Amino acid sequence: MERIKFVIIEKSYLIRKGIASIINRIEHATVVKELENLDEINSALLKYTPDFIVVNIGILSDIDTFRNTEIKADLSQTGIGIASGNSAEKEKKHGLREIISTLDERDDIYNKLQSLIREKVDSRHKLSQQTELSEREKTILKHVAKGLTNKEIAEKLFLSAHTVITHRKNITNKLGIKTISGLTVYAILNNIISIGDLE
Predict the structure, then answer these.
(1) What pLDDT digit, counting tens, does each position of 175-185 carry?
(2) Is the pTM of this model over 0.90?
(3) Could you give the angle at the alpha carbon of 122 between the alpha carbons of 20 and 124, nearest 5°?
(4) What are the chain's domains?
């Protein structure tokens, strides 16, 4: 599974490296970029497409400006604020996903981050299960790629035409591919059918 990616935006070297160290110790997580300020945020978001942005609240003095950057970061889902001292509760007003205080113990920071990472990993796992084709759907797809009609597939597999149509709709919804040529390419690329089977 692809690792959960973090970008850290923090002026303090020690705080930045400390948080990066904690994140990199968590299974399925990695820091892909560390920044001192918002100057390179657009290019970092484009290049790395991070799952989470850990950002010093002080840097976000004008949070609306940050939200209006070229890549509109949804901080309510991806933003983890670094708050100085006891201001963590007050900073919740910024609408960030989570707040880490500079006074938090290492284990508290680890647990907050691990909880977010686990949630993201579970979400990805559910999504991949939803897009995975069943064996019956793969069989239907194989016949679709060969150019058979719904009626021909139904006769070959001893199913009703209605059942075949339902399977085709499910395949289309799961894969987001609507054309027969697109489904054929998918079937070839995923070894459901070989090019030789099409001749």
Answers:
(1) 878 888 888 88
(2) no
(3) 85
(4) 4-130 (3.40.50.2300), 135-198 (1.10.10.10)
